[in-house]
Amino acid sequence: MYRYIIEDKRHVLPFNEPASYLTIGTEPLKVHHEELFSQAFGQRLELGGVFDSRDELFKVKGEAVVYRDSLWFDREFLDYFVREARKTGRACQAAFSAGDKAFNTYTLKLTSSFPPAPAPDGKSIIFKCDLWYFPAGYVPEIEPVIVPSDAREIGFYSVPDFMTMTQDQLTHYAPMRAILSIESWVHVYFATIIYGNFGRAGRLDAKINHSVFAQLGLLWRAILEQRQILQASGAVKIGKNCNIDPSAIIAGPATIGDNCSIGAGVIIDNCTIGDNVSIDAGCVLMMSTVANNCFLPFRCALYLTAVMENSIIAQNTCLQMCVIGRNSFVGAGSTFTDFNLIAQKPIRATNIEGELGTVGQIVLGSAIGHNCRIGSGMIVFPGRMIESDVVLVASDNRRVIERSVTFEESDHHFIKFGDVHKRQYPRPDEIQTVGDSWDNW
Fold first, then answer.
1. CATH architecture, range 241-440
2. Model-level pTM greater than 0.70?
3. Whose CB has fewer CB within 10 Å in the chain, the N or C terminal residue?
């Protein structure tokens, strides 16, 4: 069986990298695809070819799966699609219904990558995905396989009426199956936090509700380990060689990688932690993801936030609904806000073309690119971006970030010894001379 890849070379802001290089969850998207297909098919699929666009589909030979490399989807979505496609015995393309609440809320925002088409019944609209299955090579007659998310609505906190004019409870849709095109930092947030952590919680909840054996299994583990049900090993997976202080509280569903250190008084609730992560005393992580080799000194707080590998989030820092790129540093006491205080309206963010669009979220944080250095005591407004390789030094003139910051506005251009900080993630139209990008690994 073969695997064909359609490369998407467009760079995603503010990271200045193609989507396939970005860390979604705790691993780069390209690695996620490799592991996903190996698990789904029980074998390592032979690479049949790499295409520049959909126009090259006619080159597909034999039984094959074709996908665009900027497309994130989970194992459940892939399994459903391939199973239903094989049942037909014909060439198929993944699709989802326009009426699907989760896909409509997250997948369709800030993107034009899902072309609409009439549903097979002719009565509704579907959106086609760049994911195909061919049983015996390319044929022009391709039928859609509609994959439902089967999402359930989960309220994650309630707010007083004066804080929001439209709803008294902020909710997300936890899908059983998910797909997303990574074209904005917001998509990284949706894929990692909403489709990742919320989706995992939704699947566990559904499993408990529909299976008495699952309920008894979780209860039995909790009794044996003398823990609360969601703190026992049935809901919390911990890797090898971890050092966890007895006073730390870890509530599932949660996953902790290998060689992690978790200090006294740490609270981790529905989070994904990668390998070689150090979380010092008093940190609070809720519904967040921290990738490999990160360091969180004491009393920092992450709320629905995704942190890519090799980054440091210093003490007393508060990040809410944010995405932090790799090899970055956020200084002590910084706060990234997630709510418009006066105008309670959905926050806007940029798409892959740099154009502002509505995200459809009442609350949303900000994004920091790769190789950034953010000084202590900064305040960042919702929906802003700080481009890769930017240095921000707190001063009387710049302590509150009210708009997005580009590389040209970086403080290292204007301070003494600033030339020590080298650019590693230039824009596509710029020549890269030095870097620690994937091309140099």
1. 3 Solenoid (2.160)
2. yes
3. C
